[in-house]
Amino acid sequence: MSVRKLKPITPGQRFRVVNGFDAITTDKPEKSLLAPLKKSGGRNSQGKMTMRQKGGGHKRRYRVIDFKRDKQGVAATVESIQYDPNRTAFIALLEYTDGEKRYVIAPNGLQVGQEVSSGSGVAPEIGNALPLSEIPLGTIISGIELRPGQGAVMARSAGTFAQLMAKEGKFVTIKLPSGETRLVLADCLATIGAVSNSDHQLLVSGKAGRSRWLGRRPRTRPVAMNPVDHPMGGGEGRASGGHPRSRNGIPAKGYRTRSKTKSTNKYILERRKK
């Protein structure tokens, strides 16, 4: 994995840092696993704008990802590692021995030609998915389920990983990428290894236009607004805006909004550090 700094041949390239894409092995996606992706432009089903910074961007097609890893007991070979415009991580195309093809989130270090499989009784090697109860303590994992059979919901973005800390009864203790320590049912599946493309955090867009290609529209600073639009708006001259807060007046920067009576609080052993 590597990143490249471009030569400043234009103002937009001056600070640009791009991905070397060393891990990518092909630029042609598997056609049978593509689906259309409609743009919402930040509007809901009534046509009302609910997300102000969404809209535009390059046309994409969705890659159907197998988050459940429910094809158990059948070995698969890694055909290729590919770029996915819909997520920060790279994806791997698997071909199973019965001929079926599926995309999965590629873990770091997965090689083309490698054999992977999922289910109970599988070796804890990179790319394999197995129940948390069978994974050795201290293992780096990603793509973790919260409920058995739900499909991966935690540690899915580029470079993220969790660590298996302890096992007790029907629960295991996991340290999540946020720093939170949490109990998860031991029957839930997880993939061995950290997620690929850890260099993603080092990239620099270089110009505003690249945000537009990604479908991100400009965001107006709250202190530049009027009091009618935002709690931080208004004031004579250039006012500081006071304590940072959202449009609804809820403070930012560490204000706790989680319900004290939420039923899943008992599974969180330690909250993340600020």
Automatic annotation (TrEMBL):
Q: Does the keyword field hold Ribonucleoprotein?
A: yes
| Protein keywords | Ribonucleoprotein, Ribosomal protein, RNA-binding, rRNA-binding
Note the SMART domains from the entry: Ribosomal_L2, Ribosomal_L2_C
What GO CC annotations are associated with the protein? large ribosomal subunit
Instruction: Output the InterPro entries linked to this UniProt entry.
Output: NA-bd_OB-fold (IPR012340), Rib_uL2_dom2 (IPR014722), Ribosomal_uL2 (IPR002171), Ribosomal_uL2_bac/org-type (IPR005880), Ribosomal_uL2_C (IPR022669), Ribosomal_uL2_dom3 (IPR014726), Ribosomal_uL2_RNA-bd_dom (IPR022666), Translation_prot_SH3-like_sf (IPR008991)
Q: Does the keyword Membrane apply?
A: no
- UniProt superkingdom: Bacteria
Sequence segments annotated as region (Disordered): 34-59, 219-274
Q: Taking every annotated instance into account, which residue ranges of this chain make up the domain Large ribosomal subunit protein uL2 C-terminal?
A: 124-251
What is an example of a GO molecular function annotated in this UniProt entry? rRNA binding
Which residue numbers delimit the Large ribosomal subunit protein uL2 RNA-binding domain? 42-118
Any single GO BP term:
cytoplasmic translation
The record ties this protein, via PANTHER family, to: LARGE RIBOSOMAL SUBUNIT PROTEIN UL2M, RIBOSOMAL PROTEIN L2
Subunit structure and binding partners: Part of the 50S ribosomal subunit. Forms a bridge to the 30S subunit in the 70S ribosome.
NCBIfam families per the UniProt record, alphabetical: rplB_bact
Family to which this protein belongs = Belongs to the universal ribosomal protein uL2 family.
Its job: One of the primary rRNA binding proteins. Required for association of the 30S and 50S subunits to form the 70S ribosome, for tRNA binding and peptide bond formation. It has been suggested to have peptidyltransferase activity; this is somewhat controversial. Makes several contacts with the 16S rRNA in the 70S ribosome.
Name of this chain's protein: Large ribosomal subunit protein uL2
Q: What does the organism's lineage look like at the top? A: Bacteria, Pseudomonadati, Bacteroidota, Flavobacteriia, Flavobacteriales
> What would be the name of the gene that encodes this protein?
rplB
